[in-house]
Design a protein that fits this description.
By secondary structure, this protein is an alpha+beta fold. About 55% of the residues lie in helices and about 15% in strands. The chain is globular.
Length: about 210
């Protein structure tokens, strides 16, 4: 049992490291969006933010992979070579349908009372849509497009960026990850901007042991 807990603790630390990188990337987006820092052009500002969103989504997918990496390494081929977040989610879901982070609100009166998130958050379906949109804008568009159409593409993404960040933050702010064995879970709190994300491992206890 201690070996299992030691391994889960090791994986939880890796998961939390990814959450911290996500926080850094969100901070970088906010710096651009509030003109705290910026590139020379509007288009490159948007491309920078789209790149951060794309990498954040990849980190969410990689974190899902990390949480049960030993299971997925056994059941999937070459997980070290996996890079497409959309395909990672697809392959993981075939093995563990309940893998996706579950955002929660913790009751202010009882820290062990967890309710489903009341705010809108990033769903798996939205994940795929946004991932594709970011990928599209990070590739050079057709040279046959006129300026009006090219600018329109950037303006659409520019208006959606803040919403995407909010959905991601609502997903991850406080969330749980159900592990493959269905009795253990990671409890994750992203904390304030200055704090490193924190986490705990919870396990179900049978009535016989109470």
């Amino acid at each position: 049992m201690s070996e299992v807990l030691d391994r889960q603790t090791q994986l939880l630390r890796r998961y939390l490291r990814n959450m911290q990188i996500i926080k850094w990337r969100i901070k970088a987006i906010k710096d651009i969006r509030t003109n705290r820092c910026y590139t020379t052009y509007m288009s490159t500002n948007i491309e920078f933010c789209a790149l951060q969103i794309r990498k954040i989504l990849e980190l969410v997918a990689f974190s899902a992979l990390i949480s049960d990496v030993d299971v997925y390494r056994e059941k999937l081929n070459n997980i070290e070579g996996m890079w497409n977040a959309r395909l990672i989610l697809r392959d993981i879901e075939c093995i563990h349908p309940n893998f996706y982070p579950r955002p929660i609100d913790v009751s202010p009166n009882d820290k062990f009372r967890w309710n489903d998130k009341s705010l809108s958050y990033l769903t798996k379906e939205q994940f795929i849509i946004i991932y594709k949109k970011c990928g599209k804008i990070l590739h050079e568009d057709s040279v046959f497009k006129d300026d009006k159409n090219m600018n329109s593409t950037y303006q659409v993404v520019g208006t959606e960026l803040n919403t995407w960040v909010e959905l991601i933050m609502n997903l991850l702010d406080t969330h749980i990850v159900h592990l493959y064995n269905q009795k253990d879970l990671f409890f994750i709190s992203m904390g304030t901007d200055e704090q490193f994300p924190s986490g705990n491992i919870f396990t179900a206890i049978s009535e016989e042991k109470i």
